[in-house]
Amino acid sequence: MPKPKVTRPKAASNASKTLRSKSTGKKSKTAAGSALSQTKAPKKVTSKKAASSASKALQDRRSSKATKSAAGSALSQKPSTKKKK
Questions:
Q1: pTM (2 decimals)?
Q2: Is residue 82 part of a domain?
Q3: The domain containing residue 53 runs over which residues?
Q4: Mean pLDDT (the chain, rounded)
Q5: I need a labelling partner for 79 at 20 to 30 A (CA). Which of 2, 25, 36, 45 fits?
Q6: What is the pLDDT of residues 45-82, one digit of tens each?
Q7: d(Cα 4, Cα 38) in Å, to the nearest integer?
Q8: How many structural domains are present in the chain?
Q9: How far apart are CA 85 and CA 68, in angstroms?
Q10: What is the distance, to the nearest Å, from the Cα of residue 14 to the centroid of all Cα atoms in its chain?
Q11: What is the 3-state secondary structure (H, E, C) of the chain?
Q12: How far apart are CA 12 and CA 50, in angstroms?
């Protein structure tokens, strides 16, 4: 069984910065909020909406390093979509 994933302190700090920024967009804040909510909660997973927002934040060249760090953390905690046989 894989080890449960949680947001690490550095990514949580970046998520906090993203949430506090006035210039950050809604999708970036959604991804950051998801990452921050999973800081000490290994059973929580990223929702489809938050994963989609995180993906868009990573693809947007205007996103800051802090936003991309938080978005990456949120995406890494998304449940696998592979179908079992």
A1: 0.81
A2: no
A3: 9-76
A4: 90
A5: 25
A6: 899 999 999 999 999 999 999 999 999 999 999 887 77
A7: 11
A8: 1
A9: 34
A10: 10
A11: CCCCCCCCHHHHHHHHHHHHCCCCCHHHHHHHHHHHHCCCCCCCCCCHHHHHHHHHHHHCCCCCHHHHHHHHHHHHCCCCCCCCC
A12: 15
